[in-house]
Amino acid sequence: MALFLLLVLVAVVLGIIGAVAEGLGYLLIIGIVLLVADLAFIAVRWSKRSGRRPIR
Known about the structure:
By secondary structure, the chain is mostly helical. 80% of the residues lie in helices and 0% in strands. Helix 1 (2-20) runs antiparallel to helix 2. The chain is rod-shaped.
């Protein structure tokens, strides 16, 4: 979970720098791609975790 939060923080910082700094739009795109990949990774982990519960 700490890795997820760290990657979200890095994605937000890159996005802010890319949006504010002139000529660094590629950082904004990298931040967006990193955020989407991180959300997909956590979604896969949560879907695997919910499948382990035994049926009563």
